What does this fold into?
Amino acid sequence: MAKRVFNFNPGPSTLPLEVLKIVQDEFLDYKGTGMSIIESSHRSPEFDEINESAITLTREVLGLGDNYQVLFLGGGASTQFAMVPLNFLGPDRKAAYVDTGSWSSKAFKEGQIIGDAVLAASSKEAGYKFIPKMNDIKYPADAAYLHITSNNTIKGTQYHEFPDTGSVPLVCDMSSDIASRKLDLTKFSLIYAGAQKNLGPAGVTMVIIRDDLLAKAREGLPTMLSYKTHAEKKSLYNTPPAFGIYIVKLVLEWIKKQGGLSAIEKVNRQKKDAIYNLMDSYPDFYRGTVEKDSRSWMNLTLRLPDENLEKKFIAEAKAVGFVGLKGHRSVGGIRVSLYNAMTLEGARKLAEFMETFRKSNA
Amino acid sequence: MAKRVFNFNPGPSTLPLEVLKIVQDEFLDYKGTGMSIIESSHRSPEFDEINESAITLTREVLGLGDNYQVLFLGGGASTQFAMVPLNFLGPDRKAAYVDTGSWSSKAFKEGQIIGDAVLAASSKEAGYKFIPKMNDIKYPADAAYLHITSNNTIKGTQYHEFPDTGSVPLVCDMSSDIASRKLDLTKFSLIYAGAQKNLGPAGVTMVIIRDDLLAKAREGLPTMLSYKTHAEKKSLYNTPPAFGIYIVKLVLEWIKKQGGLSAIEKVNRQKKDAIYNLMDSYPDFYRGTVEKDSRSWMNLTLRLPDENLEKKFIAEAKAVGFVGLKGHRSVGGIRVSLYNAMTLEGARKLAEFMETFRKSNA
It folds into this structure.
């Protein structure tokens, strides 16, 4: 077996080795059933326990009450871009979007396809280098919702505070930073997150929706596009992405075992500090691409003095076991993704590598 | 480890043990990458090879040309119930549906939610005991499409011939019998199938669409609900259900290794004969629920003389390692699902058990 690499992929991404080992160990025989979990009926007691646990653990880990329904859906966060306006943007309303990068602009585009979507704020003109100030986010007082993207995987920015939207439902795509820090989530009416960064494998999307917003969902939608369909059946209206839910449950158990989100946040802070501090020591060599107060803890984006050096950096890093460091094809450069399952050791070793690389190449 | 059971679940269902072992063996380190396949980027060379192979193998195993696009989507076949009319049922057209059971009537309902859907034939009045005769399927000459369900998982019926629809596109939900027999699929314009019966785990749906129909797909749809989005990007517009696609690829390789669909069909015929012949030997004890010429090879439905005997049958079967035999909660009775990965040995041993059970209980 090859040595396990330090995997800085932006998603799908590294997962806790402990979780992977459990999956491997019980893959041919799930808890004495004589079959794999992927061969088990989604109506079996075994899967029912997984689904119920995944729901309960989500509420527990994220600090949410029973007034939040937890759904596990297929189709990725990109399908949520459409489901949100389909369910909540009626013909006589406007929905407001903050545009902070590629994914939020895709969400906004779906809002425009489906109804009357307007921009509440945007950092596009500035190359998405920052998250707008909370006071600069403007939207109609009767907006159907305000949509934000808490972490911008490609651009490397992250919200470190959130707008108070009063009676306007706050909807958030948390795909790339859910469960990475301790937050009061009660101001959010709807949160969704593709699992493939902090929660599990690709193919399952967590949707968390507060009862008061759910009650307002529109009727007459295609069945699978209605949140009510899935909430009423606890994601079992049809066959759900069962293997993904199973792993999400194991990852949530792993988060609890680490000490919950306070402990996770503490480690994530040390990880991002290891890299950002190194970058800030050599700002002419490791050039951060975003404003400091908008920096992401999850996806750290930087440029080197020239593209050839960037290629060299990526190649040499790979050779010593650091993979997935290439920036998104739309922006280039380097991106260091530090999701929950990346160890502090991994971040520190990468910082050491960066120190050495600079010495040899500055 | 518990002894591997004979798993007659209707889906998710048994998968080839050889495939499960490959997945387990390489789960912590996919082909020397130092990471699990579920940690691998969907833009990596490793996943690209999987996706390309899955597409190529689908065409090869099913006997389709390059004029069929092969997609792997999330959301289950239930999402296809909506995507088909969203893409192909314009405001001035009618779509025709044959209603042969629970799933086809759900597909029909989505057609009605989205546009003008009409019934082309139905066996509902007869309790869905048969597949309508091809001559009894009537639809407008300019219908947007005719939708059928090739195998009815719950009711236990299956098409053994298909209508010639001429210029009307034939659309088929093959979730529960795709790749189970050698068929000429070139008369179909669109085929979809949830993977969790004959192809792989839950969470991925195969969609096969002919170019001439794809070209007619409507514009202006939500991005993720448009077949064109996915066809143009080979299912990689967003992060696909990667683990599911990986297993589908392995299952298709396994089918090839068995000798392709001719060999699979031969074994499936022997399997269903083992059970149906036994039933036909004791028709007062093992009472088939559907007309003989509509019998499914995949899901064999039957009743025993009374419900207590059925409970006893299910319990005693389970005790000796035959699981998943309970009929769907909407119909009761017994259901024997004989998907590709169920071995001939399994079917024969179940037939022996049925013989013995009858002797003791008739």
Observations:
- Chain B has ten helices and 14 strands.
- Chain B touches chain A through 71 residues (CB under 8 Å).
- The first strand of chain B starts at residue 6 and ends at 7.
